[in-house]
Amino acid sequence: MKIRWLLVPVVLVGLTVPVAAQTLPVATPEAAAMSSQRLGRVGQVLRAEIEQGRLPGAVVAIARKGKLVYYESFGFLDKGAGTPMPKDAIFNIASMTKPLVAVGALMLYEEDRLLVNDPVGKYLPQLAKMPVAVLQTDGSGRTTITTEPARRQPTLQDLMRHTAGVTSGSNADELSRMYLSVEGDLTGPEYLDKLSKLPLQYQPGTTWGYSEGLDILALVVEAVTKQSLGQYLQESIFRPLGMADTGFVVSAHKASRYAKPLATNPETGSPQTSADRTKPAKRDCGGGCAVSTAMDYLRFAQMLLNRGTLDNTRILARKTVEYMTADHLGPEVNIDRLRQRDNINGYGFGLSVAVRRGNGVAGIMGSPGDYNWGGGSGTYFWVDPKEELAVVFMAAAPGALRLRYRQMITSLVLQAIAD
Description:
CATH superfamily of the domain at 104-225: DD-peptidase/beta-lactamase superfamily
Radius of gyration: 21 Å
Number of strands: 16
Distance between the termini: 40 Å
Strand content: 15-25%
Largest sheet: 8 strands, antiparallel
CATH class of the domain at 104-225: Alpha Beta
Strand order of the largest sheet: 5-4-3-16-15-14-13-12
C-alpha cells in the first residue's frame, strides 16, 4: 500500500525523505566520505542569503558514491505569500532542459535514427542553405551586414556543442539583436521560418557561441520521432528514470509546488518575473522550457554519473555517455566567448554540457572531466566522475546573482569531501 508522503514523513539515516518520492539509496555523509559538519555550511550560507533578501529559497540534493547524502530545502517557495520551500518544489530549469534534449537525441543516435555528424538540413530542410554573415564597418563606425556562402552546413554535433553559428540573441550588436526575433513563444514552423531568414553568425565549426542549437535539435528530434518533444522525453527518459515532476507544463494539481522568484531583482530593484509554465507554450522548446525538481534532476545526473544506467534501467550506453561528456572543442574552435563566462572559464564543451579541462585555470574548484550546466532561472547541476559526485541546486533566482550561486555551491560541496 502506498503511503502519502504529505501525511507520513520517514527518517532514513538522518535524512527526511518523502515516502512517495523516488530518490536514491540514502546514507550519512560520513558513509560516503563527506563531512556532515562541513556540509552544514551549505545551509548556513543559503539561510544568510535568504535573510538578506537576495534569494527566495533553494533546494539542494547531493549524491556521492551512489548514495543520497544531502537533501534539504531552504527559505520560501513563494516569499510574497510566505509559503515555505518544500523539497519537492517544481522549478523552471531553463537551459538545464538542454542536457535532457541531448540525451534524447543520443538515444536516437544509438538506434541509428540519426547521426551526430548529419547536416541539420537533412531533417529540417528550411535550414539547409543559411548563408554566413559578414560584418563590415565603414569609416564613420556604421556597420553593414553582407553574407557569404557557408563552407558547410551545421551538423547535429554543432548544435549540441554550440558551434553552429546560431548564437542566442542579445543586445551586443545588430546581428545578435536580429536573433532576438526567434526567442519568443513561437510554434515550431514559426520558429523555423524566422530562423531560416537569418544568416549564421559565423562559419559552422569555427567559433563557440551559446546558441539556439538545442532548440533546433529539439525540432530534429520531433521530425525523427513524429512526436512532440515532451511526449518523446516522457517515454524515453522521464518515465524510465522515475522523474515524475519533470515536463513542459506544471499541471493544476502540482501548481501549489511551483517556485516563484522574488518580486524585484535584489541587485537592481527592477521587477522580476519568470516564464509561467502552468500555461502550455506553443512548442516544447528544447533550449529552456522544461520544469523539474531537485530529486528528479539528481536522478538524471546520477544516471549520467553511472555511465548511462540507474536502478537497472539503461538509458544510454557507457560509450555514449563518455562521448557526450568529452570535450568537443578542438584547437580550431575559437572559444573567446566561452572564456567570458566566469564559472566555465577553463572549461571546454561537450554535447550540451561544459567539460573541465584541467585542475587549474578555472576560477572554481573541480576535477578534470567534471561537467555541468545551469539555467537562467537560477538552477544548476554538475557531475564529477572522479569524485563520484552528482549535485543539483534549484532556486528561482534569475539575474546575475545566479552566476555567483553556481560558484558558491560548488565550493561549499567540494570543501566537505573528507577522503
